[in-house]
Specification:
Chain lengths: 287, 371
Amino acid sequence: MKKMIKVENLYHSYNNDDNYAVNDVSFEIRKGEIFGFLGPSGAGKSTTQNILVGLLQLQRGEVEVAGYDIKHIKNKMFNKIGMSFEQSNVYGKMTGLENLEFYRKLFDVETREPMELIRMVGLDGKENIKAGEYSKGMKHRLTFARSMINNPEIWFLDEPTTGLDPAIAANIKDIIRQENEKGVTVFLTTHNMHIADELCDRVAFIVDGKIRLIDSPKKLKLEYGEKLVDVEYFREGELVKDSFSTVAGGGKDRLVDVIRNHEIQTMHTKEATLEEIFISVTGRGLV
Amino acid sequence: MKLWHSFSKELILSSKSWYFYIELVMAIILLLILLFVVPEDFDSKGKEYIYLDLPQVVQERYAKNLLEEDLDEITEQAEVKAGGSVFKARLYETEESKIYLLDSLDALMAISKSESVPAVHVRANEDNQVIHTYYLQGYETVKLKNLLMVYHNRLAAHDVIEEYAENIPIRSLYQGEEAFNDRENLIPVFLTFNGSLMSLFIIAAYIFLDKSEGIIKAYAVTASSVWHYLLSKIGVITLTSIVTSFIITVPVMGLQPNYAALVLFLVTSGFFVASLGLLLTSYYKDIVESFGAMYIVILIMVMPNISYFTPSWSPDWVKIIPSYVMLQSFKEIISVNGNMSYVLVASLAFAVLGLDIFVLANHRFKKTLSL
Ligand SMILES: Nc1ncnc2c1ncn2[C@@H]1O[C@H](COP(=O)(O)OP(=O)(O)O)[C@@H](O)[C@H]1O
Ligand SMILES: [Mg+2]
């Protein structure tokens, strides 16, 4: 399988000190796959993406994107890359259509019809309104649409559905799937387990700048599924609910401890959600 | 090609932003000030009011002496208004001053009061000694008072005065050229500050606006270079400064200036200043943070104005402040026989310096894209 992105021992510190926002991160993304960074806010997801697209300077580590070593970024590389930002950034003084018309001229490759993209993200009818007058969600959709304009081979999506209402988020997910079916490699970041679960071929759990695990959601659930135990028990007279993994994170020991020392009300095994797996692996929630 | 697209987009954007119109309006206001507020030729000759309280014979001798110094050797009858009354006077215009010979002490006193100018009452006492009485205004320096006293004690100090007078250095602002009138004299100042220095602020304003919208990041992930983006900004700003400079210059100066040199110099000095603005903005997140640095730059850039209006004060360090060179260059450009080699050398220097700063600014911007 061809590798579209290769990252080895990547570190980044905003203040050039020992306080790493990205700490010894290594991973690879194969051609045609949807790869997700799942982690709470502040985990280092955007920082990693920004290094990969050259918005942040590479400090330490090896990074290859679409065959280009990003130590020496070439403009040509961006013909193959699309980037949708977490915070929308469009020209407020230009209309939605003008924004895309201008942006397409900044590439050397065949670009897509702006109107086609505007229709895809459901902004048709609004294309001649100044982007400055768009709502937050509309701006976000325009930023998202813009990132597809050069038919990217690698598509970076930083929190693609965050802050969108569910119907629009579903629309965005569909577009990501469609584009991926056409062969586009996707690297997305999210703190939403549903996105990771529904879209990603593989996810990396990231917390405090470190990757804790990389696997496919399916395999993770198989591995952790059935092996999660929900227990209701009395502690100091009060009914307490808790989940224990029998696979990772010392869950087994805690479960034994509870059974030995407390009165159990109910106890079932169940299929774990990605978030529960995340918690049991990293000891941290997603928010 | 991408550079052209960026440039034309910046042009469209700036036509939608009000900074562009502020600049235009500023230029028009400056022009109106030049045309309607600044008199074309300010009367710089000093006026002297004298009342000769002397015997007829002496008065006539004095008048005859004055007449010999008069430019056209004709005595003009003039009327001087002061304190609501009109006084008759004989006006002699010498090379240095206009001398009004008054008919009465009352006239002298009234004028001294209302015009706030020193006046002289000359009379003879019983011993036929000539007495000069000066009506000063209170703001004269001790030096001047001493000088007057020494002056009237000629026998004692004549040599000293003469020697001193001969040693006063006189520097001419316009060597071998025709002097500008006041209106023309202000043009280099307006061009320097409207054209070149405004660029510094306008480009900062544009960049910070884009920074707040996150535009530069979006630009950075295209196959176009960040320097295209920066250069298009400079291009638009230079174009604006050419337009506004013409608005100010053409109506006042007509065809006299060397317009080719003007355009060249506006482009190179504008490039320099705008690059400087870019470099400055690369260190700050928003316009408020950058105020301190901007303020210091302004203070330094304003300094050469002092030397422009007071040529006797021009220490060497002022001459290397860019705005000094701009003032001088604009002066040469609008003069009849302006020194074009100076302008060319200055243009070259600004182009080279500007390029260095631009490269540095570009480097800084690439490093701080995610800010
Ligand atoms: N420009 C910046 N300067 C300093 N620290 C930053 C900057 N951007 C992010 N950080 C810090 O780096 C860490 C990772 O942030 P980020 O990559 O944005 O996380 P995520 O995208 O996963 O929410 C956080 O602790 C954040 O506070
Ligand atoms: Mg983020």
